Here is the input.
Amino acid sequence: MARNTTVAADTGAPPVTRDLARFVTQHPSRGWGDAVEHEAHRTFVNWLGCAVGAAHHESVSAALAAVQVLQPAPQATVLGRHERVDIASAALVNGIASHTFDFDDTHLKTIIHPGGPVASALLALAELKGEAVNGRGLVDALVLGIDVACRVGNAVYPEHYDRGWHITGSTGMLGAAAGCARLLGLSEQQATMALGIAASQPVGLREQFGSMTKPLHPGAAARAGLMAALMAQHGFTASPRALEAPRGLMQVFSTKCDWREIGGEIGSRFEISFNTYKPFACGIVIHPSIEACVQLRAQGISAADIERIELKVHSLVLELTGNKEPADGLQAKFSVYHGCAAGLVFGRAGEHEFDDAVVNRADIVELRSKVVATVNAGIAEDECRLAAVLRDGRRIDVHIQHAVGSLERPMSDAALEAKFHSLADPVLGTQRSTALLQAAWQVGQAPQLPPLAALARP
Here is the structure.
């Protein structure tokens, strides 16, 4: 049988691989305003708390046990644990930990969780480099790496996501490669090669949502991006058009490639400015429904009062989180029905509310069965309308236009600090957790990074 040898047409795409490499290597240090700088620190604080908090989750322990089979050199910290491993393994394991609770940052335009892949790679590399790298360099690399990942995400979302890719993993390796290229001081040509090498390592399928493999995606992206930068530093080559070519990453990824999203306002608009942080430890699309139930509880309504909860949501909510009968905590993070039950019963939805035992509690299971969710074409992704039909015949309506944690209603620094303590204190103890938090807020001024990493060990 003759093989189809049709050559993909060249669409005349701009040289975005090289353009991004030039941007990453040549943009001035702290070349942005105070608001961007502060958001970078908020992103770092949130990422660090999430990674430390999940340090002893079974998925993290399993991943750590696997990399230890390779007898890695003790180069970098596994956050929240005593073990030290090689930098690639630290990027992998810390990236997994940062996403395990589904409590990490979210770039809402693309649903990318950019901190996990980029920060996990950068801190591991910075720890190895020691005195050669300071906190200013890490923050610069974090801002620029996240910009690369999210700009590529902007260009291909939502078609790429709709195909079934988990966009955090499938763009995260580019952000990690870009950030590490900056931290290593690579040339424009080397950074172009780093992005090209990373472009052949996309990771992440949405089929894995609700399993341990979902948090593997940012971890594997962190490791891939770090290795891509190191390989480029040592002369490994790739196509200089690995992103934009007809058979390059982006055109293979997606039927939509909006090149304007790559270069538009580059160097003046930074995607980290649009990062958000979760008050609830689950998929972001459930948050409006949880908040509606929290507000219902604040009005004095209890689970015993409920005859039925009628929920009107965006189509993406049921597509991503339509699991009516989750069997464990990982599955419950993708169940709008469990999110509603947790919000009403507990008035919150932190990691404890997604514990396996809570998910299978008889009263929680019964309440989940009373939630009826339907798609409404007029509802936005971060909106919901809830009607609680009570056993006494009353009907109470709650409308959430923008959930807490959104760009319109961002979490305050104080709320982020409370979240950090709730995650890190049980692992490190309050005193050490407080010292780590202070160091994270001041990371941009740190003369070197190993002392901060040391604080993240028990």
Residues 135-156 form the longest helix (22 residues).
